[in-house]
Amino acid sequence: MTAPSPDPSNPPTAATAVRLDLPGGRAVTHRDVAANGARFHVAELGDGPLVLLLHGFPQFWWTWRHQMVALADAGYRAVAMDLRGVGGSDRTPRGYDPANLALDITGVVRSLGEPDAALVGHDLGGYLAWTAAVMRPKLVRRLVVSSMPHPRRWRSAMLSDFGQTRASSHIWGFQRPFVPERQLVADDGALVGQLIRDWSGPRLQEDMTDEDIAVYRRAMCIPSTAHCSIEPYRWMMRSMARPDGLQFNRRMKRPVRVPTLHLHGSLDPVMRTRSAAGSGQYVEAPYRWRLFDGLGHFPHEEDPVAFSTELVNWLKDPEPDR
After folding, report:
1. Would you call 251 helix, strand, or coil by DSSP?
2. N-to-C CA span, the chain
3. Pair 12, 219: CB distance under 8 Å
4. Per-residue pLDDT tens over the stretch 282-292
5. What is the mean pLDDT of the chain?
6. Among candidates 101, 152, 107, which has minimal Cα distance to 129?
7. Which residues have C-beta within 8 Å of that of residue 99, sequence separation ≥ 6?
8. Chain centre to alpha carbon of residue 300
9. Which residues pair with 122 in a beta bridge?
10. Contact by Cβ (8 Å): 72, 92
11. 3-state class of 32 per DSSP?
């Protein structure tokens, strides 16, 4: 089941825009779980060790549709959650700093009844996966991050690399009040489709259909989603010189001590390769860097077979440092 095109006379709801089946009609289990004082929507497929998938901007759980099938077929319990304020999860007035969002993630792991999880995060989801691995290492079995450097590396690049600052111009634009939210929902979320196409490599630009784009546009048009989806980026920028931001940056000095797979597209126009590639210095565990040639900011959607193969093979590898 796919989401219909946005209709201004019929505002989308989480039930109609988010609770979708996978391509090919494969059904997933949708449910809500309580964690960290809020309610989170998750989509689940398969049985086995838990792999928790964390989406980025401007998407929601559905971005992991291909990986969920691959993981379930490989013997894993694939669960994709909607982050706070997005998709079918609660839109709370506060709580969008990375430390609290990371506690959302580890709280969902506990609410799912699992002792730990392999975290797989893209973009903002990757930033939060890095954070969760530092804050709650006992709940993170393995870490996979795509299209996002370690938070300390991200901060350094944003402050000292003009090329990265220019590439992340959308984040600077988010700092304006009211305007970004209006832009995201104007023309039934047209900007969402434009961002996805602009940030992807040539493969996704050719293969992603208008129907695929409509799914993301419709989800962004759920009331309050646009505001909530950019609040984390406002915190990340505005807190750089504030005590809470400095404290978070110091906290992230603690090394990641779980095996880490770092994936990146060579043509990513949003997060430069040189910005992401230095993240291994913050990992005191097996660390593997994989650069996908010819892919952009969404490697898991641009070449789902290659991405899923890399992911599953690494999760199954008993010696990931080889």
Report:
1. helix
2. 41
3. yes
4. 999 999 999 99
5. 93
6. 101
7. 131, 135, 248, 251
8. 11
9. 146
10. no
11. strand
**Residue tagged 């759980």 (tokens):** 61
Instruction: Please give the helix or strand (H or E) that residue 297 lies within, else none.
Output: none
The helix-helix angle for 210-220 and 179-199 (nearest 10°) equals 160
The residue type at 289 = W
- Tell me the one-letter amino acid at 87: G
Structural contact between residues 67 and 46, judged by C-beta atoms closer than 8 angstroms: no
283 secondary structure, DSSP code? B
Cβ atoms 89, 54 nearer than 8 A:
no
What's the pLDDT tens digit per position in 175-210? Answer: 999 999 999 999 999 999 999 999 999 877 667 788
91: three-class secondary structure by DSSP: coil
Quick check: 154 and 233 in contact, CB under 8 A? no
Residue 101, SS3? helix
As a whole number of angstroms, the distance between CA 99 and CA 106 comes to 11
Report whether 168 contacts 287 (CB < 8 A). Answer: no
The secondary element (H helix, E strand) that includes residue 46 is: none
Burial of 265 (0-12, 13-18, 19+ CB in 10 A): buried
